[in-house]
Amino acid sequence: MTKPESDKAQDITAVQTNDIALEARDLYKVFDSAAGKVVALKHATFTVHKGEFVAIVGPSGSGKSTLLNLLGALDRPTSGKVIINGVDIFSLDDQEIATMRNKLIGFIFQSYNLINRTTVLRNVELPAIVMEIDKEERRNRALKVLEVLGIKDKANFKPTNLSGGQQQRVAIARSLMNNPAILLADEPTGNLDTKTGNEVFALLKMLSHKFRMTIVMVTHNPELAAATDRAIYVRDGGIEKEVRNL
């Protein structure tokens, strides 16, 4: 029996909605300063689909880091919404946001943000420790992620004994521990030489293509941006254009 056109339209809408990992709706951020109010971000609206690898590109001071902080609920917008897996994250209180952030978002930072006094394995386990996951389960999960990223043999090393590229792999492994809905990467190749940076970027592409991870990456590198699925260009606090890469 053929479905009515109205039912077909509803089915299509449902598929499209289910395929959305993240939505930014009219995000606006204003900071107070000694010189007055500073508009860091204005009217940012876009959608990221599940499994999509998106680059946010722009010069220093363009608003791209402010945007990433809002997407990761590290800061609240002056107005606007961020919706992750159907959850309007800024409708939650601070404790609920912290829990949501640990469950749904994986963070990768330019400076790695590893704890040097403990082992690689312990660093990777940290998000699961916060979630009170069983010790044996989190250890097995951490070792599996380290194996996928090619550094399982470094599990008992301290981060200071690793190269920059290896430390960033540890940071990526940590971001994957709770099987997040989305990875947010802030200049993940910024502290690395070109060769190592390209290797780290290749890892992110592998996670996107092989494991269908949803990734939003801030970068100032136009070549890396052109190698993602889509690039969102930010200038003077607003979205200048979006480019879908072939």
Give a written overview of the molecule.
- Keywords: ATP-binding, Nucleotide-binding, Transport.
- The chain has a single domain, classed as Rossmann fold.
- Helix content is 38%, strand content 28%.
- The protein has eight helices and ten strands.
- A six-stranded mixed sheet has the order 6-7-8-3-9-10.
- It is globular.
- The chain starts with a helix and ends with a strand.
Q: What's the short story on this structure?
A:
Keywords: ATP-binding, Nucleotide-binding, Transport. The protein has 246 residues and is of the alpha/beta class. It has eight helices and ten strands.
Q: Helix and strand layout, with pairings?
A:
Layout: H1 5-18, E1 20-33, E2 36-49, E3 53-57, H2 64-71, E4 79-84, E5 87-88, H3 94-104, E6 105-109, H4 120-130, H5 135-148, H6 164-176, E7 182-186, H7 194-210, E8 215-219, H8 222-226, E9 230-235, E10 238-244
Parallel strand pairs: 3-8, 3-9, 6-7, 7-8
Antiparallel strand pairs: 1-2, 1-4, 4-5, 9-10
